Amino acid sequence: MNATETIFALALASNNQPQHHFQKSWTQIKKLGEAVFSPIYLIPCRDGIGADYWNAACLLKSHLSVDQMICQLKQMEAESGRTRPSHHISLDIDLIAWGAELNTMHFNPKKLPLALDVKIPMFDLWQDVRFSYPLHQFPVIDLPA
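Above: the chain's sequence. Below: its structure in token form.
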């Protein structure tokens, strides 16, 4: 990894036209650096009011600063038509952690404690104890090319 690169751990979610928004956001994220994505899981809405969510995680190596990354993620959400508050989420991308190496990542305190819909997909990419979770039966969704 280049000295100016940072690893960003991202959590993605959508329950409003999720296939469209995931395909577009994955394309945009890949333009920011070297990206690896987890499988997509169909997980019920946290508060039980909205539709089930597509949830995935991404580890992204990028030359962007943390502030630049947050700005890019918020811009992607806005371009998707994201409105707050709402139970119909076109796109939610959260910065969970960042750092030079996975074993020295800084966790975003605003995202702690980590929700199950973050832990499950993130554990597929990063087997850290902070992402451990009980066995689950959530279906995996294939994102068509």
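Strands lie at 6-14, 34-37, 40-43, 53-62, 92-99, 106-107, 140-141.
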